[in-house]
Amino acid sequence: MKLNLVMIVKNEERTLEKCLRAAKPLVDHMIIADTGSDDATREIASRMGAQVLEFPWIGDFSAARNFALSHSDADWNLVLDGDEILRPCSRDEIERNIQKHEEQWIGGVLLYNSYQDGEEIRVSTDVLPRLLPRGVCYRGIIHEQPDTSYPCFLLPLAIDHDGYLYVDKGERNLPYLERMVKENPGDGYCRFQLAYTLRNLKKTQESLVHFREFYRISPRGAEYRRQGIVLFLYTLMDAGDGRALLEALEVIQKEEKELARLSDFMFVCGLFYMKLVLSDVHRYLKYLPKIQECYLRCLEIGEQPWSRGVVGTGSFLANYNLGVWYEVSGQIEQAIRCYQAAAEEGYGPALRQMKNLEKKV
């Protein structure tokens, strides 16, 4: 069995050597298509033993990936980006997983994305199809996906990605996403990606236009739909007006039966009910118990890295928010217990809050 690493890169000198060093023991050959670097990217790739190809940029990520794939003679191709670092795994373990399946399939990896959220660094997870059998190519000018109907099975491969801490690609990506939606107006995935990017660019009202269309046209069961609904709810809360809050309530009531098994969904529901009650206490007081119920449900569900969400919504973030709820409602002992549980998982704000409360007791 031959396994190659296939990449497209541009100006990745910050992390490329680390990326290739982690991947090299797992693969037989490394193929890198450079799309116009003006730093040391090509020199680093050559020094690490990769085959370096040049691909003039034509505004199409799939075209670049497919060019690189066309130069691979492997049975399986592992696809990475230059700012992604594989966590330790053995080649034998990968091969054992490949041999498990008799039908044709593609392999998913667990991606851990670090990003700035106010003064904190948060981590979100995603499952991406990154191990492709020979012959499978990509489609889509951006946020490209394998052009196949093969099922995707999760591999024992985890990747750390910190690129969002250093480069904001939203403005770069926006024209591509707008073009993609224009060419595929009925594609819910395209709508989701455009809405998500606009949200990250703080263009809340523009984002909501596309989130609403995403929600209308996306089929139930689509992998991206659950994540999209959670982000739709956050964006409705960002809008801040009563009409948006009522729209969020309607979405929650429609989706909670199906999504109540996801800690990310229950976490945003807890935040929502707090905001709803505070917007008009007399009118929405009946929803007050929902706040506690949602965070307790998060802790009952626990962490679900494979379900695409924010790390902590099933553990320390839920405990912290539950602690805040207990504190404001005067249940100080319960609040301290929750803060302590969150602090034991290394969440700094919980430790500070717990110490402040203990001084008052």
Word description of this protein:
By secondary structure, the chain is an alpha/beta fold. The chain folds into two domains: 3-165, Spore Coat Polysaccharide Biosynthesis Protein SpsA, Chain A; 170-360, Serine Threonine Protein Phosphatase 5, Tetratricopeptide repeat. It has 15 helices and ten strands. The strands form two sheets. The chain has an eight-stranded mixed sheet with strand order 3-2-1-4-7-6-10-5, sandwiched between helices. Strand 2 (29-34), helix 2 (41-47) and strand 3 (51-54) form a beta-alpha-beta unit. Helix 7 packs antiparallel against helix 8, helix 8 runs antiparallel to helix 9 and helix 10 packs antiparallel against helix 12 (288-301). The mean pLDDT is 95. This is Glycosyltransferase family 2 protein.
> What do we call the CATH homologous superfamily of the largest domain?
Tetratricopeptide repeat domain
Number of domains: 2
Total DSSP helices: 15
Question: What percent strand?
Answer: 15-25%
State the helicity in percent bands: 40-55%
How many runs of DSSP E, i.e. beta strands? Answer: 10
The biggest sheet amounts to: 8 strands, mixed
Distance between the termini: 65 Å
CATH class of the largest domain: Mainly Alpha
Element-level helix/strand string: EHEHEHEEHEEEEEHHHHHHHHHHH
Structural class: alpha/beta
Report the radius of gyration as a whole number of Å: 22 Å
Strand order of the largest sheet: 3-2-1-4-7-6-10-5
- What would CATH call the architecture of the largest domain? Alpha Horseshoe
In the predicted model, the low-confidence regions spanning at least 5 consecutive residues are: none
The average pLDDT is 95
CATH fold type of the largest domain: Serine Threonine Protein Phosphatase 5, Tetratricopeptide repeat
* Shape, principal axes of CA atoms: globular
Protein name: Glycosyltransferase family 2 protein
